[in-house]
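Continuing from the previous page of notes. For each protein in this section, the sequence appears first, followed by its structure tokens. Read the first protein now.
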Amino acid sequence: MPKDNRKNLNTARRVKSQAQKKTKWRTTGLLALAGLLFIALFFMLSRPQAKSLDAVRLADNPSLGSASARVTIVEYADFGCTSCRAWHNAGILDQIRALYGDKVQFVWKDFPVITAQSPKAAEAGQCAFDQGKFWEYHDLLFAKAPALGVSNLKDYAIQVGLDSTKFNQCLDSGQNQAKVDQSLNEAQRQYAFPGTPSFLVNGKKLIGPPSFETLKSTIDAILAEG
């Protein structure tokens, strides 16, 4: 075979071999991508499906005291926040409720911005609220913080006597994420609170954890207005 023909033949073989390798790698890549998509689809389908929250649930918040109270205190707080926990442990809310009784209502809203675990802990609190045991769960989360991983949150649900199947379904599905996001958006966009905890007293901003004396004087001034 002439030298030029052999050279052309070798070149053709080399080009064909390179083309085959490219095709092989392309096929391998497509198969790997298909595998990843299948795995992602499997986990999406196996995840519990969340139910859409209606307007009534979105407007509902954990509260203590009468809805007809003359003074409403709203706390925007985070279960992973050390200042929130310290304010809770100081017992200021208990003192206020003991002093004013039905004249004061206290409302909790989520402001989960302190730790990576805070948003899921906020959802867990709302899942406990769905079963009528928010405050028991609220107290336990503050007692156990900073252990707020998903497995911890599920263990605490059992400890306060929640239906664990319903709770886990609620938490795993992100059932109450929309509710948590609603309160978070209020705190950040509507009120521009700089941090947690932050408070509203009859709609008036009160930033930072107030002392008993500060909260008492604020309430007294509102009550004195008649």
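Done with the first. The second protein uses the same format. Note its length before scrolling.
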Amino acid sequence: MKPHRTRIKICGITSRDDALAAALAGADALGFNFHPPSPRYITPDAAAAIAREVPPFVTTVGLFVDADAAFVRVAAGQIGLAMLQFHGDETPAFCAQFARPFLKAVRVRPEIDLLQYAAGFSGASALLLDAYRPGIPGGTGEAFDWSLVPKDLPCRVVLAGGLTAANVDVGMRRVRPWAVDVTSGVEASPGVKDATRIAQFIAAVRAADDSLYEPK
């Protein structure tokens, strides 16, 4: 069944002000990036301080890239993460060991069989489909070829990769995702969000929902 309201995740949160701006604008989830090479990296201590001020019913998500299991477990417990997001070469068994819902990111390119990938990660809450750039696990600010997503993909899809207020409508029409995930498309600079861009992005998603899922 298709959603009547596409969920929205604002990823790469690094400050209290950005978290509250996203939540107040209507974001459903906030993402914290625990991959040290990323310009949006945040420590578990800093993320925990922000998470304590996140309003009720806004999901906190932790992004990890081939992290040590002990680190994932400690960070998730310290922050109280509601969901985990894995962007590396993690196996299904690795992702499932933390007793928390998880997303598995796939960097989409023609040689990836998304149907096979979905079957292998059947325990995931959704597959997060992102753009591929060698050596960069995400946050490229680039969109991928949305026509590569099979229409019969047997799982929920989170659409990511280069989304902005200007193109999210097209992405939603092509992919019909359960949720959308934006990082650079709502930033003033890497790791610093822009409240106006957040509001514009969320408004664009809601307008697309009204068009796509309007009762017939």
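What the second structure shows: The beta strands are 7-10, 29-33, 59-64, 83-86, 102-108, 126-131, 157-159, 179-182, 187-189, 192-193. Residues 92 and 121 are 6 Å apart (CA to CA). We return to this in next week's lecture.
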